[in-house]
């Protein structure tokens, strides 16, 4: 018995618990629920960007045999939206359409051809209004307001001026300013949006399977828009083909599908196309950044001033939070006090952006790090030295009151510098090759949830019954990121049992406790902690039962996972025996665990909206990117990436490595090839040929180092792993290109045509300078 | 992806049978790999009522010797051509071009005939029915205006097949079967300079096979394309070059382009470089000639000026590479 001990699962590379279903194709995604006799939903979309809805005539569509429901804006009187203070979107346009492709009618029919025939029979009468496709047009003095309650088409302006910025610039040895432009990008998760809904006319009950990251929000929005008691609604999250923030907000597809099911009195599947998924949007907004930094000759940051303009869409969505993140997350990574920030989130006649991976921070971090690199060059400093001159010392609070209890950025820097051979290779590579580096960070969950109810941030239930299995019930939305595996590991680790004993059921409102959902990298930290709490509570129940049976006080019971014993000589009780004892008198055991953030982590009050950015812990990352630039075609090859990510204790190193590689890779897409384009508000890149997500061919080897600066409050010391490595790629790439060919890029994506233009401009400027030099010499 | 409308299918076993089905069917289209056509059907660009599936026509598949040249069946999949030792040995550019088409799964289905008969492409055309309707359609399909060049009355959609220029530099001929019988013509004769209607074949004509002549077998050749991504993408510009060197002199030089005009384009004026050594000045002249003859328009998200720049740079690079390799 002496070799027996608790089974260890934390820190062990662990394949995902739902992997076999996904690999073998048995996993059920929303579209897989559509059975032969379910109806097909289809959406009619606005051909115009901005118009008053005069009439949507569906009379002819209703007469077509096989058409079971036809809905328009008249069938829904309630708006929806992710932020309680900005709910201004109707599932189907009611009085106005505000972007091209906005849903104006929907049908459910016996098959797709009939559904299309019905859409073709609908006429849409409208009165066109002036449409604005850029932030500048929408902010113009004579522009009409998209929404009455948003004068000047400003969704939110954010201003703070902390510390003494002017004094910082005055004391700086170098002050530089640059303007950056980042294209709008989309997540392009592998699964287009899909929802399956079933309405039970006998019982007035609705069950919905939406492709969402936050089933709880969908539940609330169904209650609101369908004006239906929430107790009659059940939301079951199917397997998801990714999210990356696109599906954090409730989307019109989900609401329309449920509305159709109720109207048709049956089952409806609504699976939209890739183009419609692009139109539904909720990606990262087009962003213009003006960045000004003051630096001392030794690289110390003294002050920063920035302006950020985000081109929002026709509806608010996450806009307010995105612009707040853009400002607050200038802090939290370096030791800097004086920052002035002016942010503007603008409403335009475009599909609404949302909370894409690295929410709000990415384009700002790009600008900040890129400018740091330019300044390092100007001051003759190594970019690593500049970062090291500005490191934070945990525990601390940043100047805007963000709590930092763990900080592994120094270790991240050391590793990428060493692994990439930076000291020996930087500046010594052959022509056309270059190295660049940058840092980044991200929150481990927003400490203040958007729907503040006073509840704990996360709740996990455990059930144990006669069979000795532990059923883990969590509302955490498994979207492919591994949350179910993480929760399973946490419970197995605390109990010391094999993971096979734990069955995890996630995201069914009738079964699992409510969860705030998968966004802001909150799940590992919050749900992980709740799972640990629940497992500890269960362990107490089991220990007390074992103590009763062994006739010793509970504190003398030793838990070895599969065996509970009183002293090393004791043969002990098996897990099953302990469970049977625990069930005596009480029957099935159910315990609960919760997690609530600390008040001091919930951000500051120094300016309006300062709570955004508040988190229990930050992850940190540093990366080095190596590139080769083709002198004739300006094609950039990324040869290699070294990335170190401080995620605190890595609960599942296998999963962490995948998340970090995925983040870097997504950053690469934004930096190099991705960007939406529109023709008068009509998306011309709404497909996977013209919207260029990188393929495996140009994907570099990404070497990952996990740095574990354990957080005092994280589950086993863990922090977030899924977002923090993304934004660093962008500035590391532009720095590497500058190192390779001496050209500095400020606009992304850096496609070959954009880069060739910069190269030719530089060649011309060099030639002119050389001519002037020789003229002067002469 | 949009849904696939219903249509009838026939699966003939001979080319003659295929032609007959075509003549007798309601709004027919020939279908081979479907990697281009099915996408266009889903988008409502094509609305065939009948599809004539060519994958069962034995005489249209496979690669065989033809008197020192090669016969390649029109329904041969691109992967087979890319991997064929005999194609690689005799007509390197053809194998390379076939291997550069789209991605691996496309090449498993996509055929030679499909790549040669590829519809021209444009940002304003390769869109869904809803999209095109919202944009008042375009000159190429159902509309009055070309959104690329609104003042003109021409369609500038770009021919974007990779294999055609490689076959052109090797002087390929095609065997066509149609209602009027079978004919064999030089490959370039099936194209014309009109993005709206770039194929000069007769209605119902079918590409049975491609013939590559013995006269160009073994002459060094190569193909390269510019694209943003290393896979999937259609060419932004593509260049095929055939070059024979005799001592210091160039004894044979042929250059053809794709994706920068509505048809695969033979570059004129290359004879001027034959019978002379190739120096930097000549290479620059070749680059500039290519740039002059390429006429890319804003049919992709990448700027036309870039495609023109790069097509010249790539031509220069390939010519130089083939010349140096034989030194």
Describe the model.
The complex is a heterodimer of chains A (778) and B (327). Chain A has 778 residues and is an alpha+beta fold. Chain A contains 19 helices and 31 strands. A 7-stranded mixed β-sheet of chain A has the order 3-5-1-12-9-10-11, sandwiched between helices. Chain A has a 6-stranded mixed β-sheet with strand order 7-15-14-13-8-31, sandwiched between helices. In chain A, helix 15 (523-550) packs across helix 16 (575-583). The radius of gyration of chain A is 28 Å and the shape is globular. The model of chain A has no long low-confidence stretch (mean pLDDT 97). Chain B has a domain at 228-325: Enolase-like, domain 1, CATH 3.30.390. Chain B is 30% helix and 20% strand. Chain B is built from 11 helices and 12 strands. The chains are: A alpha+beta (778), B alpha+beta (327). The interface between A and B is large, with 36 and 37 residues.
**Strand order in the sheet with the most strands of chain B:** 4-5-8-6-7
Q: Which second-level CATH architecture of the domain at 228-325 in chain B applies?
A: 2-Layer Sandwich
Helix content percent band of chain B: 25-40%
Structural class of chain A: alpha+beta
SSE string of chain B = EHEHEEEHHHHHHHEEEEEEEHH
Number of helices of chain A: 19
What is the CATH superfamily of the domain at 228-325 in chain B?
Answer: CO dehydrogenase flavoprotein, C-terminal domain
* Unreliable residue stretches of chain A: none
**C-alpha geometry of chain A:** globular
Beta-strand percent range of chain A: 15-25%
The portion of residues forming beta strands of chain B comes to 15-25%
Q: How large, in whole angstroms, is the Cα Rg of chain B?
A: 20 Å
Average of per-residue pLDDT values of chain B = 97
Number of domains of chain A: 3
Per DSSP E runs of 2 or more residues, the count of β-strands of chain B stands at: 12
The appropriate CATH architecture of the largest domain in chain A is 2-Layer Sandwich
CATH topology of the domain at 228-325 in chain B: Enolase-like, domain 1
The biggest beta sheet of chain A is recorded as: 7 strands, mixed
Tally of separate helices of chain B: 11
| Most extensive interface between two protein chains, with residue counts | A-B, 36 and 37 residues
**What Rg of chain A is obtained from the alpha carbons, in whole angstroms?**
28 Å
């Amino acid at each position: 018995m002496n070799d027996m001990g608790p089974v260890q699962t934390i820190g062990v590379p662990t394949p995902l618990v739902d992997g076999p279903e996904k690999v073998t194709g048995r996993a059920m995604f929303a579209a897989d629920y559509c059975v032969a006799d379910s109806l097909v939903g289809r959406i009619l979309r606005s051909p115009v960007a901005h118009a008053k809805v005069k009439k949507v005539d569906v009379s002819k569509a209703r007469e077509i045999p096989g058409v079971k429901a036809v809905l328009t804006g008249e069938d829904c009187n309630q708006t929806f939206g992710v932020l309680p203070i900005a709910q201004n979107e109707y599932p189907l346009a009611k009085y106005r359409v505000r972007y091209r492709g906005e849903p104006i009618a929907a049908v459910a029919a016996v098959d797709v051809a009939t559904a299309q025939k019905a859409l073709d029979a609908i006429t849409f009468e409208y009165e066109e209004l002036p449409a604005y496709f850029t932030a500048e047009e929408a902010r113009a003095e004579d522009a009409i307001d998209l929404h009455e309650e948003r004068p000047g088409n400003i969704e939110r302006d954010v201003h703070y001026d902390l510390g003494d910025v002017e004094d910082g610039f005055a004391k700086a040895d170098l002050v530089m300013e640059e303007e950056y432009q980042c294209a709008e990008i989309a997540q392009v998760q592998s699964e287009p949006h899909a929802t399956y809904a079933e309405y039970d006319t006998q019982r007035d009950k609705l069950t919905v399977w939406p492709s969402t990251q936050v089933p709880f929000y969908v539940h609330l929005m169904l209650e609101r828009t369908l004006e239906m008691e929430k107790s009659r609604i059940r939301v079951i999250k199917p397997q998801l083909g990714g999210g990356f923030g696109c599906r954090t907000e409730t989307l019109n597809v989900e609401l329309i599908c449920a509305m159709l099911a109720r109207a048709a009195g049956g089952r409806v599947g609504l699976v939209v196309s890739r183009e419609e998924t692009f139109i539904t949007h909720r990606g990262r907004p087009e962003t213009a950044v003006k960045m000004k930094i003051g630096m001392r000759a030794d690289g110390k940051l003294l002050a920063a001033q920035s302006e950020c303009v985000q081109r929002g869409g026709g509806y608010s969505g996450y806009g307010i939070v995105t612009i707040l993140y853009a400002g607050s997350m200038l802090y939290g990574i370096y030791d800097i006090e004086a920052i002035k920030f002016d942010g503007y989130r603008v409403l335009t006649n475009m599909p609404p952006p949302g909370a894409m991976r690295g929410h709000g921070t990415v384009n700002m971090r790009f600008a900040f790090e890129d400018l740091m690199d330019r300044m390092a060059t100007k001051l003759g400093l190594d970019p690593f030295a500049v970062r090291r001159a500005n490191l934070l010392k945990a525990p601390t609070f940043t100047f805007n009151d963000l709590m930092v209890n763990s900080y592994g950025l120094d270790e991240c820097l050391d590793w990428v510098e060493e692994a990439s051979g930076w000291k020996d290779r930087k500046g010594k590579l052959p022509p056309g090759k270059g190295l660049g580096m940058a840092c980044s960070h991200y929150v481990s969950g927003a400490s203040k949830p958007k729907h503040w109810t006073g509840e704990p941030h996360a709740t996990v239930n455990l059930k144990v019954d006669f069979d000795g299995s532990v059923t883990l019930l969590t509302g955490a939305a498994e979207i492919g990121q591994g949350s179910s595996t993480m929760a399973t590991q946490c419970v197995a680790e605390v109990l010391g049992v094999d993971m096979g004993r734990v069955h995890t059921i996630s995201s069914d409102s009738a079964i699992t406790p409510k969860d705030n959902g998968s966004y802001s990298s909150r799940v590992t930290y919050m749900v992980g902690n709740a799972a640990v709490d629940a497992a500890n509570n269960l362990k107490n129940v089991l220990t007390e039962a074992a103590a009763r049976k062994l006739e010793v006080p509970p504190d003398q019971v030793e838990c070895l996972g599969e065996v509970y014993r009183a002293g090393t000589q004791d043969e002990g009780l098996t897990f099953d025996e302990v469970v049977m004892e625990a069930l005596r008198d009480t029957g099935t055991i159910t315990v609960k665990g919760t997690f609530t953030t600390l008040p001091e982590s919930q951000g500051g009050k120094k300016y309006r909206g300062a709570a955004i950015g508040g988190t229990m812990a930050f992850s940190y990352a540093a990366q080095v990117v190596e590139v080769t630039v083709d002198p004739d075609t300006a094609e950039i090859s990324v040869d290699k990436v070294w990335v170190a990510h401080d995620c605190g204790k890595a609960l599942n190193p296998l999963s962490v490595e995948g998340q970090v590689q995925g983040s870097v890779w997504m950053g690469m897409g934004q930096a190099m090839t991705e960007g939406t384009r529109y023709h008068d508000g009509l998306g011309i890149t709404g497909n996977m040929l013209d919207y260029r997500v990188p393929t495996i061919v140009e994907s570099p080897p990404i070497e990952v180092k996990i740095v574990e600066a354990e957080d005092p409050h994280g589950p086993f010391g863990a922090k977030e792993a899924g977002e923090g490595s993304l934004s660093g790629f962008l500035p590391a790439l532009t720095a590497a290109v500058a190192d390779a060919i001496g050209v500095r890029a400020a606009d992304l994506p850096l496609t070959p045509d954009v880069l060739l233009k910069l190269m030719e401009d530089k060649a011309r400027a060099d030639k002119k300078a050389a001519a002037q030099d020789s003229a002067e010499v002469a | 992806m949009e849904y696939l409308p219903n249509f009838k299918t026939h699966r003939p076993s001979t080319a003659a049978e295929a032609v007959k089905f075509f003549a007798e069917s309601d709004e027919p289209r020939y279908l081979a790999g479907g990697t281009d056509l099915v996408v266009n059907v889903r988008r409502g660009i094509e609305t065939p009522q009948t599809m004539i599936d060519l994958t069962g026509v034995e005489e249209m598949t496979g690669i065989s010797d033809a008197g020192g040249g090669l016969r390649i069946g029109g329904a041969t999949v691109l992967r087979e051509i890319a991997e064929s030792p005999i194609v690689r040995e005799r007509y390197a550019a053809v194998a390379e071009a076939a291997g550069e088409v789209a991605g691996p799964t496309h090449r498993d289905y996509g055929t030679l005939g499909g790549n040669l008969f590829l519809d021209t492409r444009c940002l304003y055309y390769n869109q869904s029915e809803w999209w095109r309707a919202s944009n008042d359609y375009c000159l190429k399909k159902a509309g009055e205006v070309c959104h690329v060049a609104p003042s003109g009355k021409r369609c500038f959609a770009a021919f974007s097949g990779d294999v055609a220029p490689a076959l052109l530099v090797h002087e390929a001929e095609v065997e066509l079967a149609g209602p009027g019988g079978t004919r064999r013509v030089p490959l370039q004769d099936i194209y014309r300079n009109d993005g709206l209607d770039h194929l000069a074949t007769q209605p119902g004509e079918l590409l049975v096979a491609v013939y590559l002549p013995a006269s160009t077998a073994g002459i060094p050749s190569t193909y390269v394309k510019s694209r943003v991504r290393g896979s999937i993408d259609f060419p932004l510009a593509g260049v095929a070059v055939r070059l024979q060197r005799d001592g210091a002199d160039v004894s044979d030089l042929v250059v053809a382009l794709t994706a920068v005009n509505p048809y695969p384009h033979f570059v004129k004026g290359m004879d001027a470089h034959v019978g002379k050594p190739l120096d930097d000045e000549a290479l620059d002249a070749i680059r500039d000639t290519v740039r002059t003859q390429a006429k890319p328009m804003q049919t992709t998200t990448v700027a036309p000026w870039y495609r023109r720049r790069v097509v010249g740079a790539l031509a220069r690079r390939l010519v130089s590479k083939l010349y140096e390799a034989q030194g």
